[in-house]
Amino acid sequence: MSYQNDQLILPTYLAPALLIDLAEQYGVNPNIILKGTPVFLESLITENHAVSLEQLIQMIRNMHESITHPEVQFLFGQRYIETLTHPALNAIAYSQNIKEAVQRYVEFHIFLTPWCIPVAFYSEKKIILFWLNNQEIHANYLAISAMTALRAILMNSMQEELNISYSFVGAEPNFIEQFWEHLGEDIKFNNLVNAMHIDICESQQKQSYQTSAMRQAYYRQAKLVQQQLGLELSFLQKVFNFLIRNVHQVPNLEECAEYFQMSIASFKRRLHKHHTSYQQLLDQARLFTSIQLKELHHYSDERIANYLNINDIHNFKRAFKRWSSLVTS
What is the DSSP letter of 43? Predict the structure, then answer.
């Protein structure tokens, strides 16, 4: 069973309440943050009230449009983690190594950065994280908040200093100092996608101070909470994971719908509820795969084209341009 974009699954006393606090801090009427949602201020402190992912993202859009201070997108991600108490944080803190910590973040992201769906790729020496909301008009804003939150999680969990770099779509903003303050100085702009790059040092392959019993116990606790709430995977994640697994075979719309035991019309309607389409997800899966094969495994364009079952390098370059709106170097 997968959860949907419009299900009421996120308690109002967490992210929505934090957004209201930020609005009040910057002198913005809290009702502006709630515009376009059925949420009222009175329900924010009631534990049995909840919002959907769609409603939360609308609130974040409202914050972006109403609070002009650039630091707020960083503060939202940072403070969300600072105020959160959840077994998922313990599961990450007691991970065996940095790779397992990131894997657990991806698995439990609905509790940690619910406004963004992460996608991670791994090699022995590096991890790359992308986010699935690339088509969202406020994608950079959402990704910055998610990266700030994940950085806070990892910095609190790992005993050693981490080597993290960041890539963002779009030109370098005027408030670059905010990026340096909250994320560090290894930041690049005008990139194909928003991404977070984490180097794996030899000493971070394993953290011996974490006991196997505690590592497993905290993970089981977080997993139990996730299963009880029915929040293991969203429908969007299930579709994207299917496309990633089969990206070299290029499954068509009919095959994808059949795999999920749905009619084509129902499948398209379900994706539309997530504000995306089969073609957008397929393009994103092929773009992410191309980038990670080049960066993590040093594939040439010819080898990537072959992996994606594209029979001509020129066709690959044209396709890549369509996926990313940029041409490979």
Answer: G
d(CA 64, CA 59): 9
d(CA 52, CA 237): 16
Give CA–CA dist 146/131, Å, rounded.
Answer: 9
**DSSP one-letter string for 114-162:** TTS-EEEEE-SSEEEEEES-TTSTTHHHHHHHHHHHHHHHHHHH-SS--
CATH 1.10.10.60 residue spans of the chain: 235-324
Q: Which residue has the tokens 């981490």?
A: 162
Tokens of 212: 């196997």
**Residue 215, CA atoms < 13 Å, CB-side half-sphere:** 15
Neighbour tally for 279: CB within 10 Å: 10
Give the dihedral sign, CA 23/90/237/259. Answer: negative
207 neighbors 162 (Cβ within 8 angstroms): no
CA nearest neighbour of 286 among 238, 327, 324: 324
Q: Find out whether 308 and 294 touch, Cβ atoms under 8 Å.
A: no
Residues forming a β-bridge with 121 = 128
Distance from C-alpha of 219 to C-alpha of 93, rounded to nearest angstrom: 10
Instruction: Quote the pLDDT of residue 207.
Output: 54
- Tell me the three state secondary structure of residue 169: coil
Instruction: Give the position of tokens 């973040």.
Output: 105
For 142-182, what is each residue's pLDDT tens digit? 999 999 999 999 998 887 788 999 999 889 999 999 999 99
**The domain over range 235-324 is classified in CATH as 1.10.150.20:** no
Q: CB 60: neighbour CB atoms within 10 A?
A: 23
Query: What is the rounded distance in angstroms from the CA atom of residue 41 to the CA atom of residue 26?
Result: 17
